[in-house]
From TrEMBL:
Keyword terms, alphabetized: Signal
Source organism of the structure: Pseudomonas prosekii
Entry's Gene Ontology cellular component terms: extracellular region
Domain Lysozyme inhibitor LprI-like N-terminal: start-end pairs: 32-101
Signal sequence residues: 1-22
Superkingdom of the source species: Bacteria
Name under which the protein is recorded: Lysozyme inhibitor LprI-like N-terminal domain-containing protein
Amino acid sequence: MYTKGRWILSACALLSTEHALATGMDCTKAVSIVEKSICANTALYALDTQMGAAYRALVKASSEQQVELRTAQRAWLKSRDRCVEDVACLDQRYRERLQELRAQWSDAVAYRPDDVDKLASEDLRQAIEKSDPEFPLGRVLGSLTVKVGTTDFSSEGADDESHLPTTAPAGVTKDEWKALAASEIPGDYGTRSYTLMDLDGDGLRDLVVDTYTGGTGLFEYIDTFRRSGDVFVKRVAAPDSETSSESFLFSLSGRGANQTVTWVKIRGRIYAAYQNSYYGVDHVYLLNPLKLNGDVPTVSVNYRYELSVPKTQKDEETGVVTVLDAALHTALTQALSEVSKTEAKDVGDQSRPLCPIPPTGEGDGAYSSYGTGHYTFEIVGDMPITLGGDCYIGRLMDWFGGYNAKDGLYAQLLMRKPETVDGGRGYQVNGRRSMTGVTTSVGKVEGDNGI
């Protein structure tokens, strides 16, 4: 009888522990100093709740690793308890654990590209390779763009109160409008545009939501909702991840990056062809629009530039036109020969000064690079500029490979005296590019502001 009772008590204790591992803190049963500290602090209690949700989600997604997960969670609880009532310590422990759990969850549920996805990226590579060497991507992606079966409409109301239109927009069926009205579609801050299109080939149109929030980066956040029965359901997202990259499919930045998206159809599948560009390269990631993407098929297009300094320069702000004298034009042209024609090098290694350092004056750093950069532009490289026997510090900067038919690559060559880090002059630089190669790979999306 004693043995049976002890077994029952042990089983109950085990169940209690398992419940605590999965649900987080029950403050009505808080006993230890640590538990009471958490319950007395709103921020810590919120973190504990988030951690419980993240742990439950990971357990659900990792059915074959239950024992390992429980062991790891118990070890973390012991580590947490060593903080006792130190709020800063507890806060750090929770945030670290949340980051670990979410990373494990993402890896567990992330979509793995299959053979069709890899063949799609190879089809794209071959098409680009055969295209115009100056504008290969635009023409190929344009030919693959989803052009039929879509309906676009916009939100109504002010930015902080935007919502779905009050009446069904043209092109939206009664059934779709009823499903939209019954769905939990975000409608708080930001201006939204919506697109209905069949993203998974089931014959029902799904929903793409593009939210423009602005900010310093002029951000847009794009997410998708699958049509499921009578409603639209948000694609899979991590628990408590509204502020993380997993709460949306991808983002676009209108300042501080060169990013676009094209919805394409390849081998019968719809992809969000997310393009992130830099000086000398365009990366195109084929995102599965209704999944959490981990490693994705990627096509990279590399370029080489022919750079030149126009003799006639026009000030963008004042409109004043000047003609460079021969000596200055020659010096600037010579300086361009010092920078890479295929990739941005940023400020370089700065191991040697670009100009001779005098015994007195500015510190050595002022002679090793042009200076700090800014998130709105890309540093291609720093170099010396020799003019009239004097040495100047130069920098070639561009806007992340931004390119158009009229000017080609738009860039600027900056020039300043080495003894001062302020002031300086800027000169327009044009560049014509030619494709040098196209490669495919499978890996993480890089350069997105939220992925």
